[in-house]
Specification:
- The protein has 295 residues and is an alpha/beta fold.
- It has a domain at 88-276.
- Helix content is 48%, strand content 16%.
- The protein is built from 11 helices and 9 strands.
- A 7-stranded mixed sheet has the order 1-9-8-2-5-3-4, sandwiched between helices. Strands 6-7 form a two-stranded antiparallel ribbon.
- The longest helix is centred in the first third of the chain and has 27 residues, at 59-85.
- It starts with a helix and ends in a 23-residue tail after the last helix.
Length: 295
């Protein structure tokens, strides 16, 4: 069945990619409203995350943020077609890049981009391929469906010029070798992958299993660590991708302290645009021993 549906879905994404973004965006928001109505489990996860992270807000405000978040998820689903099929020239017109995008080209050190999980994450991946010349390496979670797995790998690398993707289940040696060869590391640091190679550090005041790898890898390879944040612009105007100043003093010789600083940076960005953070992920799924589930 998957082999039959995949060509149809890809054809739909291709057709959607031909639409002007001001028309495509409201269609995507409509899909998001349908997802809000039907995806009860993910809706509950989003609301629980918002309750844990932003308890100072009224329940009605948190619920509105969650509704907006689902609308943006729906928009991002439809906009995969743009990321996968739109021309280089069209994407450059739609993506507004701000900050020091050329840092990786100037520095003599390896560069790690820290890219939190905002809705426009895939646009950030396009931007680092379109607006600077260094090859990119990243780690991703493979799709369970082999058809989609092949499609995702091909489409995510279409502007890459030799860029590489490694499964998170592969050894880190290949990733480290790529960095030493001159690749920039597009790092997604803020998901719960369990206790392995992680520490429980606060995220909005709640203990969250957070990977220590960004600090440890940056220290081992003497990397410059530059945050990159992608943002959906209103009114179907496209996206903003901000290349921020490198984190000062990161990494240090204290990986846990570095990881806490990283989470504080992400908190700051979430408060800027709370509706755009990936609230449907169970960020607090892994608990310290003896603690009950938060979900």
């Amino acid at each position: 069945m998957a082999r039959l549906l995949a060509p149809l879905l890809l054809a739909l994404l291709w057709l959607l990619s031909r639409l002007p973004l001001p028309l495509l965006a409201p269609l995507g928001r409509g899909l998001g409203r349908l997802m809000w109505a039907l995806a009860g489990r993910r809706r509950a996860v989003a609301l629980r995350n918002l309750e844990l992270c932003l308890p100072e807000l009224a329940e009605s405000r948190r619920r509105e943020i969650a509704r907006q978040h689902f609308a943006l998820i729906g928009r991002s689903v439809f906009e995969y077609g743009l990321a996968w099929y739109a021309s280089r020239e069209r994407l450059k017109r739609l993506i507004r890049v701000e900050g020091d995008v050329a840092l990786a080209e100037r520095t003599g050190k390896p560069v790690m981009w820290l890219v939190p999980h905002f809705v426009a994450l895939d646009i950030a991946a396009v931007a680092v391929q379109l607006f600077q010349s260094r090859p990119v390496v990243s780690v991703y979670m493979p799709a369970s469906n082999p058809v989609w797995e092949a499609v995702i790998r091909r489409k995510r690398l279409r502007f890459g010029g030799g860029s590489r993707l490694f499964s998170r289940f592969e050894s880190a040696r290949a990733l480290m070798r790529s960095v030493r060869e001159g690749y920039c590391f597009f790092n997604l640091p803020d998901m719960d992958f369990g206790e392995r190679d992680a520490a429980f550090v606060p995220f909005f005041g709640v203990s969250a299993a957070t990977l220590l790898a960004p600090s440890r890898l940056a220290r081992a390879l003497d990397m410059t660590v530059q945050p990159v944040v992608a943002e959906v612009l209103p009114g179907g105007r496209g996206w903003r991708v901000r290349f921020l100043d490198p984190l000062p003093g990161f990494p240090s010789d204290d990986a846990v302290a570095d990881t806490q600083r990283m989470n504080q940076f992400i908190e700051h960005e979430v408060r800027r645009m709370p509706e755009q953070y990936l609230w449907v992920h169970k960020r607090f799924k892994t608990r310290p021993k003896g603690e009950p589930s938060l979900y």
